Amino acid sequence: MLDEADRKILRALQCAPRLPFRRIGEVAGVSEQTAARRYQALRRSGALRVVGLVNPRVYGAAQWVTRIRCRPDRVAPLAEALARRPDISWAHLASGGSEIICVMRSPLDMPREDVLLRQLPRSASVLDVSIDLIIHNYDAPGTAGWTGYGDSLDPEQVRLLTSERPTPAPGPPPPPADEDAPLLDALAQDGRTTHTRLAELTGWSLSRVARRLESLESSGSLEYEVELLPERLGHRLNAILWLRVAPAHLERVGAEAARHDEVPFVGAISGEHNLMVTVVARDPEDFYRFLTTRIAATPGIDGYGVSISVHHLKKAASLISRGRLVPPASL
């Protein structure tokens, strides 16, 4: 189980993923060496990965939520094939193991049929498919992802740490140069790779590594994400709520849902149920409490559905194997 220092380390990383261990230690009230050791222990356990990702907006990619209902005896091979695709950024098995829910990236102007034909293998196991566009992401001010493990930092600490992250320039980010490939590959494996190690992997000088990182980060072309596996932290129930909300209430309901500690992601989508809310809970009773107190207390929701995740397949840049986050290249 996490103690207070662990929780502070996790929260500091979510606010600033490349924060030096010296600063992390200051925030957590431990030495630089202890902060590094605890971080490495979480990383080795498969509960945590910090990854550097190319912003999908660079390539004009939109995000689409796809729900694929399959024959239960044929779902596993299809799910694994989808999870390994680079254009699939998130994937779960749900609804008793017969439904694959995934988020895929594809240009907005691509016809709907082409999206499916390009990214969904033809298979007799597929019974039904629905695909909806994510039209808006809700980011609660001062937060950076799921904090249901217990946020031990006060708002002022969060504000200060978040301010240490690079602030991307406005407007569409430019694409990375071809020569950036080894740098980006290294950061996809470990977003906290040191400048010294990046110089070794790229053959660049330290000053060139620093300049290129600063350019990619400040332009918004390069983003960092802290991937967590909640099961490793004692939160074993993951669910998706599909809410139906009138347009007049959509902004308020989405923003309110995003503020809950149990919620890693909220997105407005184009389907009949037009708000997608992912929820992380400790157990069924914890999820029931969230549903009947937090969601029930939110006016403007006209209907809902629930998909219970039975198996994680992929996070943004990690496959999930034997209950651990692993880079795709390691399998």
TrEMBL record:
It comes from the Bacteria. InterPro entries: AsnC-type_HTH_dom, Dimeric_a/b-barrel, Tscrpt_reg_AsnC-like, Tscrpt_reg_AsnC/Lrp_C, WH-like_DNA-bd_sf, WH_DNA-bd_sf. Residues 167-176 have a biased composition (Pro residues). Keywords: DNA-binding, Transcription, Transcription regulation. Residues 163-182 are annotated as: Disordered. Residues 2-62 form the HTH asnC-type domain. This is Lrp/AsnC family transcriptional regulator. It comes from Streptomyces hyaluromycini.
